[in-house]
Amino acid sequence: MKQPTDPSGPLYVQLMEEVKVRLTSITALTQDQRGIASPLVREFCFLQLRMLCELIALGCLVANGDILARSARDLGTKYKPKEMFDAVEKLHPRFYPSPRTPTRTETGWHFNDYNHHFLSREELVSLWGRCGDILHKGGLKKIINRKPPIQRSFQDVSSWVLKIQGLLNVHQIEHVGHNSGLIIYMNFGDENGVVTVHRYEAITAL
Asked: Distance between CA 200 and CA 183 in Å, rounded?
């Protein structure tokens, strides 16, 4: 694989920068509730997680722009991850981001599979639905029986954040045909780091 070239994909960068902002807001509020009641902190966090699921799904469409040109006309109006994924999969089964571990070699870079926990496609769809259940009040019976938890830690929220970071920290999106695609660096650990997107093309053996 050729060494990554000039950054590109401004719309994808925009989406991923928003991902970083929302993840940061979750971490900031769960570490310091600022006097806000824990049930409200929890609602805020799951609202952000739901938005993050939608941003990742939209990113799949943006990164595979050629798919949109050949897809159903209404795909660009969908917002539910499962609907988007089901439609795109028919044209490109490997559309979902693949987390990578970059390794420097004598000839450039090699991107190994990421072997830690990360947010799978199935988990993203499940999380999006769970967020909706948490954010909606529901019927009267649910309200009467519900006992809002008083929390000092938000382990489930933190677990989802870590999985999203694992998925996106350095990830690859393959284009149709698998001979080209994008390598994206989120630079989560760098306070001043910005998202960069690099295009690559596979090298044909001589």
From this structure: 7
Distance CA 199, CA 1 (A): 11
Neighbours of 54 (CB within 10 A): 19
List, for residues 95-141, the tens digit of each pLDDT value. Answer: 899 999 988 888 777 888 888 999 999 999 999 999 998 887 655 55
Q: Residue 150 and residue 42: Cα distance in Å, rounded?
A: 10
Answer yes or no: are the C-beta atoms of 176 and 195 closer than 8 Å: no
By CB atoms closer than 10 A (0-12, 13-18, 19+), residue 98 is: middle
**Residue that wins the pLDDT comparison between 196 and 136:** 196
Residue 156 β-bridge partners: none
Tokens of 149: 């938890």
